[in-house]
Amino acid sequence: MKICFSIIFSVFFCVSMESQTIREFSATSLDNNTVTFSSLKGEGLTVLDFWASWCKPCLKSMPYIEGIYTKYKDQGVSVVGVNTDGPRSQSKVKPIVKSLNIHYPIILDMNNNLMNDLNVLSLPTLLIVDKNSKVIYRHEGFVKGDEKRIEEELEKYL
Amino acid sequence: MQSPFNMLKYLWSSLIILFVPIVVNAQFNGSMLNEYQYGNIPSDESGDFNSIYTRALLDYQYKDFRLSTGLQLYQTPYQERNYVNLSSAQLNYQTEKISVNVGNYQEVLGKGLLLRNYQIPNAVIEDLGFRSKQYFYTDILGASATLQLKNMTIKGLWGYSLNNLYPPTESWEQRRYDELAGAETHFNIKDQRIGVSFLSVNNELEESYYGMLHSGGSFLNYFSYYVGYASYLGGKGKDDLKGDSYAAYGSLNAYINSFGLSLEYKNYKNFLLGAGVNEPPALVKEHSYKLLNRSTHVLQPTNETGIQLEVFYNLNLFSTITANYTLANNDFGEDLTYQEWFLEYSGSVFSNTDLKVFVDFAQDPFKGEEDRISIGSSIDQSLGTSFGVVFDIEGQDFTRYEESVNNFYSGLTFRYKSKLFLGLQGEYSTDSFVTEDSKYWIGGNIQYKPHNKHTFNVFVGERRGGPACSAGICYEVLDFRGVEVRWAARL
User: Domain A19-157, what fold?
Assistant: First the structure.
């Protein structure tokens, strides 16, 4: 078993794999409707923003992401917020989204299935996904100035 | 007729021909967390020691299928704490409408009132009893299936629930104590959703059946609600609680322009299911501030009623005022009423400065803390487009058994983009439950993220433990003094 771990250790250190592809899935929207990933996806790029109501950097980033949504939605870019709040804090999600005047769709991932499926290890995490559902960029955390780096990445792939 | 040897060769060749194209088209993904420590709990007189914890997850994805495997390892000089463990193995099939899991999976039933599994990313816990470490998660080993249609969802599950109070050094019977079978369905009628859930819990002491009715939805464009009532339906071995085991939860939300409100109600009685497979909403604010996060009230699902009211008002896109009131009452022969009032301003004060200021007042008879007042501030100053500095300061004062207790926390962090963080933290306490005399904790940390695939963290010094809450789950963190190096990697 220790040899097995040594091999895994080396693999993680040396090997870089092809980007992950997102499988089709259904989720519940903020208004309790069932939505599919294919119906939310953009013609070109899709931005997936994983966040939670208790995560301060997540809330700080959301107005900037709304700005990105407004700026690029006419260029075939979709933005989807993936809320990962558990039962403890889920009642705060809708008031936060509405009072922040967020217009991009929000889906609920209460049992963190999508988060685990896409190996999201910290919040906030922002993914840029291409038209073939391939994850082409991943950004973890948010500090002021990161919105410019995210826009630069979007411009690169547009 | 072919010999068995030739047949075997033929079979292997066929399998290779069949699977090589699949492997080429398939994807491998994975993540790994390594934590090396040299040090110990300061109060442990057995001396410092080396330890390493590793957790690796490998996923293999082909079209709608995904095969996941997880391994974890903990090694110390103490044999009884060490293990190598297959932490998870899962085959998942997922399409737009169907999801099927065989192996380890996570599920929530009835908003956590009946069942809640969780995984706290990058959290490794160590307990004082076993002194072994494990990744902080719960799951079910068995099978589940979900059918999700436009206006209806049906799910069913069966399996053995993980009780993470026992580390992987302990027996399967202790760690997988409860056998669960559950089902849930809900229907959408316009903006309203109604549902019913069921759970059976079977272990060596009881066979119990629980049911729940729930409903949620929106009305008048500005309001939404959720109500759920769960109750013990019957079974064996829990007769003394029959008819007296229930959980009621409700929430009402309002949002008008820049104003948001969340009002929640709870009434839980004898509702700790099995070894703790459920996690009803706590209705206690999860604070991001160090001292307040530690001073949390831990939900007692065996007997608790209360409310939580939170209102927030966005002054502009980047500035918010938040007010929270929490009331939790426990009746254990004596009435213990926890109350907390919290007020916070968070926003941009100048173009390059973010400011957070809070004041919090609480009465916590459960922990004997009277008139607990906490104040604090955090200033995040950007220096150009790439650099920044964050300064945090928090203070707390309360009376316990006529003794005045003070806690202080301060932190200073320099950052370069999201790549490099250099921090220094200090704490001071006069709490006699923690230290005989007053005590300082001082530590420094570095986080370096060269790119998206690797993150390195180094901590040197001493850090204070105690209760902590993350992602809605509260747990106990042990004190630590020494050196800690963490490496998180992704394929």
Answer: Glutaredoxin (3.40.30)
